[in-house]
Write a structure and sequence with these properties.
The complex is a heterodimer of chains A (229) and B (252). Chain A has 229 residues and is mainly α. Chain A contains eight helices and no strands. Chain B starts with a strand and ends in a 5-residue tail after the last helix. Classes of the chains: A mainly alpha (229), B alpha/beta (252).
Chain lengths: 229, 252
């Protein structure tokens, strides 16, 4: 007999996956709109944001209900705690996709600059990291989590090199200041998207293995594990 | 690290030919609350009862291994069972007041232990009832029958009765399972207070109660100790899959 509680958890799982798919689609379309200058696609991303917001609230309410009515423990508790966090991270990624789309229009005339600066390569990397983390969300296979961290580092390096070139351009050509500033903002958004992807990867490890791996850069791994329960 | 108050070593118990406890070794620290959880028939109550030799009264029970309380094996021949039970008090699932006054219920233990001084007895009764959080409710009717108290009050009075003989350990077998939520909350608050002075061992079917009141949790299954550890660990990241399945309700 499948218990009511299991059905609630399954529902939560499904909603988080749906949120993951939806946000991936938003990020994917935003980046495509940026590179192609497709204004319609950019507007579609802006328009779809309310779907992300609605799902965000639905997931919050479901978590609240499960907490209040079932007092979950152990793996169930970790799942619900992490669902709240991942939901938050995904919703923020959705907002960043909207911000990128809103800026895409102003940049559409400078498509060749984007190619020249390798923003297209950065966009593919960002697209892939979100796709990969949503995939791990589906499979719960934590062996691929390390790839997310590797991708995030590569994205960070790429952003640094592109930023340096943009600054250089800005210093020599004052006419590009507006577009360059917008581009810098977009780079920051992409950086944040990669950051949220690593957060989600950390949450998945917490759900599946019960290990806390965040802040690994700042603390030794053991120091984090040793924080008392 | 707190001192170990009760230590069992390879404790096995048989009802006739049937093994009910299989070589349980467990250290219970003093002045902490240790909870035993597990499905019905897992041996948790049987194990609790070995800690003050309540199983002695059941025919065909055979016990092997050791139970050390303060380092002394309570199954040694020279152990005085009455003294042992004075040191290791017990509270049961169903409150069991004597059909006497509240005062007489609480004074009973001290009296049979030879205390006859009226003033001393009054003092013990008052302190015990206060420590069991029931003094305010009964102080004006100490000589009324204990049977007139509500279920929750009776249970707290029984705890006062257990405290009156100044035990060091209190065993509780489902002490709140027959009580309403408010009485249950009072008992749980009481357990928090009592652990400052006493070592408490509690058997409960209510998993959330174990999580709320205990410092340590032992999970029993089919007469075996499956996992024993800090409650906060057991209820967040248990080591054994079996424990996880039981506490999350995915069991059997």
């Amino acid at each position: 007999m499948e218990r009511h509680f299991e059905q609630e958890l399954e529902k939560l799982n499904k909603r988080i996956l749906k949120m993951g798919n939806l946000v991936y689609e938003q990020v994917h379309n935003a980046l495509e709109a940026l590179l192609t200058g497709n204004v319609e696609l950019a507007q579609q991303v802006v328009g779809n944001d309310n779907q992300v917001d609605r799902l965000d609230v639905k997931i919050d309410k479901l978590c609240q209900r499960i907490f209040a009515l079932t007092q979950p423990v152990a793996t169930d508790l970790r799942l619900i705690m992490s669902a709240l966090k991942m939901n938050n991270d995904l919703e923020r990624m959705g907002d960043l996709a909207v911000s990128i789309s809103e800026k895409a229009e102003g940049i559409s005339e400078y498509k060749e600059i984007l190619i020249e600066l390798h923003v297209d390569e950065l966009a593919s990397m960002a697209d892939l990291i979100v796709k990969d983390v949503v995939n791990i969300l589906h499979t719960k296979n934590t062996t691929f989590v390390k790839d997310i961290f590797t991708s995030a580092s590569a994205i960070e390096e790429k952003i640094q090199s592109i930023s340096a070139r943009i600054l250089d351009e800005m210093m020599h050509k004052t006419e590009v200041i507006v577009v360059a500033t917008n581009l810098m903002i977009i780079l920051t958004h992409i950086d944040r998207i990669a950051g949220y992807s690593t957060n989600i990867a950390e949450s998945i490890v917490f759900v599946v293995e019960g290990r806390i791996i965040k802040h690994k850069g700042k603390f030794q791994q053991d120091a984090v594990s040793d924080v008392p329960l | 690290m707190k001192e170990i108050k009760i230590k069992t070593k390879n404790l096995s118990l048989y009802y006739g030919a049937k093994m009910a406890l299989n070589s349980i070794s467990l250290d219970i620290p003093e002045k902490e609350v240790t909870a035993f959880i597990g499905p019905s028939g897992c041996g948790k109550s049987t194990f609790l009862r070995t800690l003050n030799r309540m199983n002695d009264l059941i025919p065909n029970v055979k016990i092997t291994g050791e139970v050390l309380v303060d380092g002394l094996n309570i199954y040694d021949k020279q152990i005085d069972v009455v003294n042992l039970r004075k040191k290791v008090g017990m509270v049961f699932q169903k409150s069991n007041p004597f059909t006497k006054s509240i005062y007489e219920n609480v004074a009973y233990g001290p009296k049979i232990n030879g205390i006859n001084n009226r003033k001393k007895l009054e003092e013990i009764v008052e302190t015990s009832l206060k420590n069991a959080f029931i003094w305010e409710e009964v102080k004006d009717r100490l000589h009324d029958s204990a049977m007139g108290l509500s279920g929750g009050q009776q249970q707290r009075m029984c705890i006062a009765r257990a405290l009156a003989v100044e035990p060091e350990i209190i065993l509780m077998d489902e002490p709140a399972s027959a009580l309403d939520p408010i009485s249950t909350a009072k008992i749980e608050e009481l357990i928090f207070e009592l652990k400052k002075k006493y070592t408490i061992v509690i058997v409960t079917h209510n998993m959330q109660q174990a999580a709320r009141v205990s410092d340590l949790t032992a999970f029993f299954y089919l007469g075996e100790l499956i996992e024993f550890g800090k409650t906060r660990k057991i209820f967040t990241t248990p080591d054994k899959k079996h424990t996880e399945e039981y506490i999350t309700g995915r069991f059997g």
